[in-house]
Amino acid sequence: MGRLDVPRFGVRRFCGAMLAVMIGAADPAGATETDPFRSVMWDDMRALVLGDAPFRFDDRVKVTAPASAEDALNVPVAVDATALGAVERIAVFADMNPIPRILDYRPIAARPTIALRLKLQQATAIRAAALTPDGVWHVGGVFVDAAGGGCTSPALAHGDPTWERHLGEVQARAWPAVQASAEGQSKSTRLRLRVRHPMDTGLAPGIPAFFIETLVVRDGDGRELARIDSHEPVSENPVFTVEVTPPADGRALLVTGRDNNGTEIRASVPLAWRQSSLETSTR
Amino acid sequence: MKRMFTSIAVAGAVAGGLAVSFSADAARAAGPTDQDIQKDAETPGDVLTYGMGLQGQRHSTLKTINTETIKKMVPVWAFSFGGEKQRGQESQPLVHDGVIYVTGSYSRLFALDARTGEKKWQYDARLPEGIMPCCDVVNRGAAILGDKVYFGTLDARLVALNKDTGKVVWNKKVADYQAGYSMTAAPIIVNGKIITGNSGGEFGVVGAVEARDAETGELVWTRPTVEGNMGTLNGKESTMTGTKNASWTGDLWQTGGGATWLGGTYDAETNSIFFGTGNPAPWNSHLRPGDNLYTSSTLAINPDNGEIKWHFQTTPHDGWDFDGVNEFISFDLKKDGKVIKAGAKADRNGYFFVIDRTNGKLQSATPFVTQTSWATGFDLKTGRPIYNDANRPPNPMDGGGAAAGQGKPIFAAPSFLGGKNWMPMAYSPDTDLFYVPANEWGMDIWNEAITYKKGAAYLGAGFTIKPLFDDYIGALRAIDPKTGKIVWEYKNPAPLWGGVLTTAGNLVFTGTPEGYLKAFDAKTGAEVWKFNTGSGIVGSPITWEMDGEQYVSIVSGWGGAVPLWGGEVAKKVKDINQGGMLWVFKLPKA
């Protein structure tokens, strides 16, 4: 939990006027919370991602990433908000990125955890805000050092004349995951998928923004299990890991999606045969 | 009005079960309807179609700006297309509800506030590296219906975007860009169907006209333009185009060309769409004996099912790259006390054709350029050219060329770029004249051996291009369709490559590669106004009325096919700088 005892000196004075304009006279819950990273961009990020909604800094939202981004084009980040219990949305963003929003995750029938790779332009706090059913955002984060340049470099696909032939191809695998919890064991399906896509930010000279906007994971009957609304800073050929909870007798997961040029993405991921499905059907 | 439409959309969603059919209606209500599009030529408050009316007359009833007042016309604002992609800008803007929709080079679409020039949104298609546009990375314009705007991209896709947000609604692959297909023409919309042609004639593709449901993008019918290929209707095979091997030998019809790269026009009176078809492939005509139907033709097609009603072949068995793609403009021919439902076309081959649009019967064919070396005229009974056989580029098998495998070169006019190329002419029902942007040039041409290879140029010919006169190449000509006579002409040093507009204000507008947007007296040809836009003009001008004032707009940005060729023509154009700018003009307020 964030505490109030850190003085905010210059930052507060500098941003005071802007903050007043952005959020008006209201002083919603969390307005007095202090950013543990003391980022100069926090007030802007808050306005951009959370708006006027109440929030608190919360260590139960774990964001894991390397201390330093060895490859600014592929920074692995994992978000785990399972300690909060029920979560409706997770917004991932990076304060100092020229395009701060990275993705918006809706774990509809899924555990509130997601792993991805992203592009970083410079050293920044990478944050995840998890929305609980009571309407409060819980914000966690990690600071990642970076040499810079991830968002303004052309995608590797730019040097490959054949990328368009493989555009939207999906590689994926699903396998059972077992978690220990207070009530005993719970079962879910871990899905890791990679989509071939340049994910152009539009910031590299002469290359328009071209990125996946939506990926939806469904069960065999077409019901939504999880939804990822992604933005430009997600890495080229995005890799996502999520944990969904399809029906016990499900045979496959369906992945559908679309990029900002209207390219349709569609793939079926077979589910491993599970003892539990046999138990369900013979019970 | 906007508020009312919003509430309709909400009601549709609340209605639940009705939502699907109702939301489609709401989408239509949020923008121009099919009826608005059909009436575009009569409603000067908007420009909803490429051609300023589905018939493509490019005529406006506005006359606030006329031969007298135009002397005071000044720019209101200009908008830069920006980026490092300043290539040929052959677009015609659309105007609806105070918003201009204009396409740019490299498959870009901009939505601008028509009053201020402020950008509302921009869509940049992410093109693959291997696109193969033959003649610059141009686009000629968008289409609009309901809440969507549409345009074709250089990788042969048709994209529908929300007109207010620029977000892609659907994106359909029309053809395989790796086989040489692309899409540069503006689509047309007829009764809820979006109808498109294809490009790629120099790569041995097969031309086609296709109709899709404008709401969903689903294919309704296809009509290949080369005899022997099968059409489709509602996902099933419909009828074959022509009769297989009636005018083609062997399997050449599979790579026969005939690309419909300039799009089409529509006439409601006869319920016909008119699409021109490109030259047959390869250029070497000795490799493909026969008329090679339906290349280098105008096709009248039923928009409901894609069936061909009639065809008129302007260059049977073409050997000079005389595409027949040029726009076929419907008009009432008043001749000998009768009114004939006619259409006219100024062809690449140098002839101005007047054709009965109800049955395809030739009324007249008269040259609109000084030389047509390939034919001495047309037989009005048969509708066929009277060839000058000595001017057909000889068979390379007979030798006589500069190198082994090359045929003997001959000099022919018009050149392969045509007496008139893509740039659309205009027709004024006020003066009963057509205004044709023509060019005076010829070519040395010789044939070579060639075999088809997917994605490679399929020509089998070599060529140069040469001006016919020292002082001009371009000539804007006013043609009387009753007689074929040239009433007046304006000569331009560089080749003309932009579209034409005419108005009830007795004006004719066109742009020049030298950068000028020019206005002429429609009756006399006297130049009455000009403005230099800073780069060569190869776009098509429009005019509309907004807040009680008349506006004129043109895209400036040099490019297209002309700068791709060298020789004597290059001397006239090599110093023209590139650009990418939309200009808007009006009269100053009194």
UniProtKB/TrEMBL annotation, chain B:
Binding-site residues, Ca(2+): E202, N279, D321
Domain spans labelled Pyrrolo-quinoline quinone repeat: 49-361, 492-552
Segment forming the signal sequence: 1-26
Highest taxon listed in the record's lineage: Bacteria
Disulfide bonds: C134-C135
Listed GO MF terms: calcium ion binding; oxidoreductase activity, acting on CH-OH group of donors; pyrroloquinoline quinone binding
InterPro entries named among the record's database cross-references: ADHI, PQQ_b-propeller_rpt, PQQ_MeOH/EtOH_DH, PQQ_rpt_dom, Quinoprotein_ADH-like_sf
The keyword Hydrolase appears for this protein: no
Cofactor note: Binds 1 Ca(2+) ion per subunit.
Keyword set, alphabetical order: Calcium, Disulfide bond, Metal-binding, Oxidoreductase, PQQ, Signal
Active site: D321
Cofactors (names): Ca(2+); pyrroloquinoline quinone
Keyword Signal: yes
Residues that hold pyrroloquinoline quinone according to the record: E90, R140, T184, N421, W422
Gene Ontology CC terms, in alphabetical order: membrane
Family: Belongs to the bacterial PQQ dehydrogenase family.
Name listed for the protein in its UniProt record: Dehydrogenase
